[in-house]
Design goal:
Blueprint (H helix, E strand, L loop, with lengths): L2 E7 L3 E8 L6 E7 L4 H12 L1 E9 L8 H12 L7 E7 L2 H12 L5 H18 L29 H33 L8 E6 L5 H10 L6 H11 L7 E6 L4 H10 L5 E5 L5 H10 L4 H10 L22 E5 L5 H15 L2 H9 L4 H14 L3 H17 L6 H11 L29 H8 L8 E4 L5 E4 L2 H11 L6
Parallel strand pairs: 1-4, 4-5
Antiparallel strand pairs: 1-2, 2-3, 6-7, 8-9, 10-11
């Protein structure tokens, strides 16, 4: 079915809206960037959506005069190389971008610059449709000023009062219809927008033979879109209705047109999941939930991997803090939580070389103890060279049976368990108060931190302090340590 396509041409972007020639509801389609590929990108849109008419927003000032922007719009349209078979219509418009931005602000939802352009194009197309009779033949949209009625019909005279009542009744009916139409269009345009600003991924399976309404219901149920009804309407009006079976990882930050296109094209995309070093377990699990994994599935996966060789001898009920290795993981829509969690352990196990294992043993530590200590080193300092000296201080204190004296451990307990966030805490994670290592690691870490524990510097420092300048200062005696605090840690040690 032939389509109408509208353009709102701005300085950097072109908002695009689409409607069926017989449909009352235009919809935002996309935003084109002003680039060397603009003409090709636009040509692809025309071909894909079988466009027969392009409606171009024609800007004028408040006096109805052409402006510098008017000339620019004409120039851009020339660059688009629209084929002769496609009809071009110039639709007067003024302040549609301002109107679009006001509407998006009114909705109270986050939006991007491109959303303004696409919505402005929708207003342009809506104005065009409203001012032209609906017809599958564009020639029927042309209004002749010279047509006269074949027969002149003189209305019968009626009393003024009756005419007045009829007039107001007609105004009321038209007004109500107009209000209902505006309200419906506003709801529809809002429902096409992304459900959230930040992406939250959901895995959605489209079964073979699923109807559009079934797919729309599943998308709404999975919190990918706002409205199943709006999705169904859009696919009918836009012609994007050949939806493909498959399993998709879909983002709530994508609009209905984007999601419909992904499913129509059968795009089974892979996703890169970044687990950064220095993250607590709860922070990593939040990342996985945003990628579409259910909390229950993640918890089940954390239980199922307990038999992994890396966890041999690890306490059964202890949290897997520090064991989800920082790396970039490529996942597909059907990648399970079990597979992903197991992959983090596989990567961690493979990263620990025989030399590192031998070095850890030489320090008198088990692998589990080394992992706990490495997490503390990571939280204290990120520089690999400095990490080795920090590890030396901590290992020396462990051998001497004195407290580690690390603030980051009781801070972790306060964050995770709600304990007192100061050195007076009675938490077993308070290494200012209790000698030895805390019960578990306090985060994951760069491999450099574990290497530092396996191969600390050949020094015998007893103290260190992080200065306000970002450097770490080491000392042998308490007096030297206090002098470093007074000199280098004026703000940070208050």
């Amino acid at each position: 079915m032939a389509k109408l396509l509208a353009l709102d041409i701005g300085e950097k972007r072109i908002g695009v809206a689409l409607a069926d020639a017989k449909a009352p509801f235009p919809a935002p389609l996309t935003t084109l960037e002003a680039s060397d590929t603009l003409a090709d990108d636009f040509s692809a849109l025309l071909h894909k959506h079988k466009v027969h008419t392009v409606v171009v927003g024609y800007p004028r000032n408040q006096q109805g005069e052409v402006t510098k922007q008017t000339g620019r719009v004409e120039h851009i349209v020339g660059l688009l190389k629209i084929p002769p078979s496609v009809h071009v219509v110039w639709q007067d418009e003024s302040l549609t971008s301002v109107k679009a931005e006001d509407e998006l602000k009114r909705r109270g939802k986050p939006y991007e610059k491109g959303d303004i352009d696409a919505l402005a194009a929708t207003y342009i197309l809506n104005d065009y449709i409203a001012s032209h009779p609906v017809s599958s033949d564009h020639s029927a949209h042309q209004v002749s000023q010279h047509n006269q009625p074949v027969t002149e019909v003189k209305p019968a005279k009626s009393p003024k009062k009756r005419r007045g009542l009829l007039k107001w009744a007609l105004i009321g009916v038209v007004g109500a219809a107009l209000l209902a139409t505006v309200s419906a269009v506003g709801w529809y345009l809002s429902a096409l927008q992304p459900r959230t600003r930040d992406p939250v991924y959901s895995v959605v399976t489209v079964e073979q033979g699923s109807g559009t309404s079934d797919i729309a219901t599943e998308l709404q149920k999975s919190a990918v879109i706002k409205s199943a009804r709006a999705f169904t309407i859009y696919t009918r009006l836009s012609g994007v209705n050949n939806l493909q079976a498959g399993t998709y990882r879909l983002s709530s930050a994508d609009s209905v047109p984007e999601i419909a296109t992904i499913i129509a094209d059968g795009k089974i995309t892979t996703q890169n999941v970044l687990i950064s070093p220095g993250l607590r377990l709860d922070e990593i699990l939040s990342i996985l939930e945003k990628e579409g994994y259910a909390e229950a599935d993640i918890e089940a996966a954390l239980t199922s991997v307990r038999s992994h060789p890396l966890l041999a001898g690890y306490p059964k009920n202890a949290r897997l803090e520090g064991y989800l290795y920082p790396d970039t993981y490529q996942i597909e829509p059907n990648t399970s939580a079990d597979s992903l969690i197991e992959k983090t352990l596989d990567n961690f196990d493979a990263a620990i070389t025989p030399d590192m294992r031998a070095g850890i043993k030489a320090q008198g530590l088990t692998l589990q103890q080394a992992i706990i200590l490495a997490s503390i080193v990571q939280q204290e300092v990120s520089d690999p060279d400095v990490q080795r000296t920090v590890a030396q201080v901590f290992i020396k204190r462990l051998r001497e049976g004195t407290v580690l004296g690390s603030d980051v451990t009781y801070m972790y307990a306060a964050e995770q368990f709600g304990t007192v966030n100061n050195p007076s805490s009675n938490s077993p994670y308070n290494t200012r108060k209790f000698a030895g290592l805390p019960p578990t690691a306090i985060s994951n870490f760069n491999l450099s931190a574990l290497k530092a524990v396996a191969n600390p510097t050949d020094t015998s420092y007893n103290y260190f302090v992080a200065g306000d300048d970002g450097k770490t200062y080491f000392s042998y005696t308490l007096e030297q340590h206090q002098a470093n605090i007074d000199k280098y840690c004026i703000k940070g040690c208050q």
